[in-house]
Amino acid sequence: MNANKAEELVSKGREFLEKGDFRAAEKAFAAALEEDDATPVRNNLALAVFMAGEPRRALEILEPYLDPEKEDAGANPFTYALAARVHCSLGQEEQARRRLQQAVRSFEKGLSELRQSLGRVPYAFREYTVTIMLAAADLGDHRQVFELYRRWESYHVSWENKFLAAVACFNLGRYKRAATLWSSIAQVSRLFSGMQQVAFLVERGVIPPFEVSYERYSQEKMQEMMEEATASEEARRRYAQDGFFRMMLLAWLLEGDSSKNAAQGVYTMVYYGGEWGEKLGRQVLEYPGFSPSLKIAAVEALTARGILREGEPVPMFIDGERRLVEIKKTPVLMEPDQELDQIVDRAIKLRDEGKIDEAVELLQGIYREGKFYPRAMMTLANLLRRKGDLDDALNIMEMLEEIDPDNPVFLFNLSSLMLEMGEIEKAREYFDRIDDPEFEEEFAEKLKMLEREIERYENVALLPQMIMQAYEEDERRKIEEKPLPVDASLARGLKNMPAHWLEGACIYYGLEPARQRRQREEQLRDFLSRRDNLEKEVGELEEEERELLKYLLQRGGWSRLNAVTRKFGSLEGDGFFWHEREPESFLGFLWSLGLVMVGKATLEGRRVKIATIPLELRQPLKEILGI
């Protein structure tokens, strides 16, 4: 038996698992099992095979540990929980529930034994709570998922526990608790902030209740689903029934996106969402928080379903009040029309004479007659811009873009309007979409002028940002210059940290920041002095952050800063207002949590910058990290 080689293979296998390469993970774990037939290795091999879509073979791998006649066959809580998930995937619900019960009993027994023998519960054992909760989730037993979360709340080491508990609460109708749980892991993914908002709106009755699956789709998977839904009606119909897909779309819409894609998302959910979709459509019309473009999308979907009748006034809350709005389908006249061109020419003449209101009224008359003539609408939009009615002008231009999204004239005018409205990024986006190398000289010159204007605004917009960035970097460097002994205590290190860093650390750890700075320091000292808290937080760090801690611990707990930054990256660009935006570097993030401190120490008569782990945290971190 070669335990070291087995350990290396297991480490590789876990890396492949995290990347989703289950076949490569299977090969690594199979090779490790040949070196060391240990329970964790066999469990990991079975997991890789299960994730690769072979549940029966996964069960065969676990069977040596599942012999009912052998109490000490080698199974641990993970073994039973994984077996429960496998049985569930095979439709064997009774066996799945029995294995889940075994997993729970095995975990409870292990807790008792470990507390008696070690006085604590190791991180690796506490990780089993995720798999056990997943087994209950696979069975759709929302109540048990949440009960397991509450029963073992002090032992959880992963944000996944809170995610699973939040889904369970959402599906049980406990929307406030779901929102609170998603809020507590918002730093993990921006999506969870959106899910929190969805839960609040379901609680308020704005969004109809629906059920969410426990499976999380990756960004790549969601993008793939969106593309498939765009291309296939069958896919749109299927995904509109998918709870997590609904949740993702709703979270996205609540970010305030009023684009054509967002309107298409509302249309898809309302049109293909069955009874739930109808309820959603009516709520979109009633709730003030949805934009007019999303309300129109809801009306169009409800009309296409035959729930509303075309031309019939629809009650909706719009522009701050409840109104009856009549939605009409106006035909688009793409062919040149001599009579309409004469009206447009007359409006242009009125414009040149300074009679803007008369010109606007003339062109609006064409639209009121039920005719959408692009030349007339483009002229109308530009007249509205001159009057300062920018929102009305934008509505018209967006309709024109929808008719002909690649038209360079429409894109040019949209870019100009966005610039006028102060939307510099959107102005650049529309400008960059203009693509025709054979423009007439006059239009080409207008394009050059517009690009120069966009660049000028971009430079002006960037200047305050650049000044602010320079200020933040300078303020952080001042903190780096503060005196700090190489063997500084946690209390000493926290005294160097600005008050808002302490506030940010408290919030990250789930503590309500005290009003006074001294009290915040005490909160953080008390929190990090508890072994279970420290173990949990270290378990949620990135691998590189744990490696940085190991690097310092292997060197007595501290190192010169230049040696650390050469290996793990510098603090440059991390800013200063860490309560608003977390630092991006590994060192900065650890510093923001009080796990590592940076300052200047006197070494051999010279003051040099160091990175150091607080003295009282070194030994527990060594034990947690296995050093």
Automatic annotation (TrEMBL):
Give the stretches traversing the membrane.
Answer: none
Which keywords are on file for this protein?
Coiled coil, Repeat, TPR repeat
Question: Phosphoprotein as a keyword?
Answer: no
Q: Which residues form a coiled coil?
A: 517-554
Q: Which Gene3D superfamilies match?
A: Tetratricopeptide repeat domain (1.25.40.10)
The TPR repeat units are at: 374-407
Name under which the protein is recorded: Tetratricopeptide (TPR) repeat protein
Q: Identify the species of origin.
A: Desulfofundulus luciae
